């Protein structure tokens, strides 16, 4: 017992936050440059081929062993270094959003390439920081003589593709002892929140075309069916949990000619709720509404599954350690130039409502006196609920998972918007990215140094699952919605 305590003390001494920070600083420039390159090649879900090759090249140059094609996805991979009894994973993303092209470092909306993609969620930073965390931890372990496996998971299609959910179903995270990740944000904090589980599917109606004036009686309108489905959903909203959500987009209208009875139409529907049980229940009600719309219009309806994710299971055991490490390392060290740009962007393109929305979403102060957050939010007394969704949720059901947020953008920046894209290559974003890498790596080092900590984290996960095993939200026969020929 005394030998175990002595070994734990030694590991804590050699794997402290300052050591991790030095290792991250030594490699930071290369991964900042990687982030900027990925910013310049924004690719959509499951099509992140160039971005993945950049990530793989970086990890192979660092001596990591790469396994491609995880869970049958060409843009999913794992990079591993080291050996040992403990296996730590860092989660990275690199997908962009459609039609968000924007020039960098300006305070007005101006597409770099009209109609092109853009990194409106700063996933260019996200993946690069997680890579840096893995490399910094590997280097610190090697210098300290402590053995452990370090993995980077290249996870595709977080934006609307559920890449990690497919990876979880394939067992990619089953042998991890802990997983760490982060997300770009407008505040610095440890995320201690659950998220909304979701299911997304297409409902495709087919009817019978006809001349809308000469023979409307022989037509059966698929577009009418989509509209009636939306009416039914609107009536359902009054009778579903207040923290659930239903979103939709009409993705196919059957044409643009009003004098034709449209024979085909399609809607894409996204159902969210705090638990998978509620999501599944709402989804079944949605299917019945679609069937009713088809009956009313004498059309046919086909449901085509698109994606699903689980809600996050917070892990307070790891989150408390992450908050300690974040506090020790400190917030990003923004300078006068960083604040100047954020001030100008806020004056030109952000509103008081934007600032309030940021504060409400993340529990930050709405009256923070600076345009960039250079503090660290306190850890909430108990986990809350964040009204968004992420496929990190599925990882958190399999392995204890902790996530930090760092301020890559000015307070009030609406993510999934051009204001985010324009800040994605700025020095302030780089500083926040490196901070995130240090926090993740330092927390992982603490977990490696303390086997009892990992045991408590696993016990907490078991309790939050109610003793149940992870059950994928994906249908048994579903495959990632990857375009043919890729």
Offer a few descriptive terms.
486 residues, alpha/beta, seven-stranded mixed sheet, four-stranded antiparallel sheet, 14 helices, 42% helix
Protein described:
42% of the residues lie in helices and 17% in strands. The protein contains 14 helices and 15 strands. α2 packs antiparallel against α3 (49-61) and α2 packs across α13 (427-449). The radius of gyration is 24 Å and the shape is globular.
Question: Secondary-structure element order, as H and E?
Answer: HHHEEEHEHEEEEEHEEEHEHHHEHEHHH
* DSSP, total strands: 15
Q: Strand order across the biggest sheet?
A: 1-2-4-3-5-15-6
Please state the CA-atom Rg, rounded to the nearest Å.
24 Å
Overall mean pLDDT score?
95
Q: Characterize the biggest β-sheet.
A: 7 strands, mixed
Total count of helical runs of at least 4 residues: 14
Spatial gap, N to C terminus: 55 Å
Low-confidence stretches: none
What share of residues is helical? 40-55%
Helix/strand/pairing category: alpha/beta
- Which of globular, elongated, flat, extended, rod-shaped describes the shape? globular
Strand content: 15-25%
